[in-house]
Amino acid sequence: MGRRRWAVAEGYIPEGSNGPAPTMTSHESVCILNTGSQDAQVEITVYFSDRDPAGPYRLTVPARRTRHVRFNDLKDPEPVPLGTEYASTIVSDVPVVVQHTRLDSRQAENALLSTIAYAED
After folding, report:
1. Percentage of the chain surpassing pLDDT 70?
2. Do the beta carbons of residue 31 and residue 42 sit within 8 Å?
């Protein structure tokens, strides 16, 4: 189930947060579902409007599992900057399903956005 190449055209990690960390820390996340029988080797690349891309960030999603990864936690090869617009691609060696989520907790009235990423193939 799924595809090997995904794109998320919208990305932005708010600089501020309101509420207890880490639960209420403003963040963007990619949720990856691997329903197959083989572990998925995944690469995330982050694109910016004013500089070269960052990445790839490499991770594994075990077979028949899901993994939720906060862009805030991506550190190697460099942290994803806060307060900066970006887009991302997610490439896997086996088919996966990708969902994108943002928690914006800059105000006490929080906002949660979630959408399925664009599947390329």
Report:
1. 76
2. no
Q: Which of 5 and 111 is assigned the larger pLDDT?
A: 5
Average the pLDDT over 42-57 and give the result: 96
Shortest CA distance to 79 belongs to which of 115, 27, 42, 40?
27
Tokens of 77: 């090869």
- Look at residues 81, 110, 113 and name the one whose alpha carbon lies nearest to residue 10: 113
Pairing label, strands 111-116, 27-34: unpaired
Name the nearest CA neighbour of 117 among 95, 93, 88: 88
SS3 category, 73: helix
Identity at 114, one-letter amino acid code: S
Under 8 Å between Cβ of 41 and 75 = no
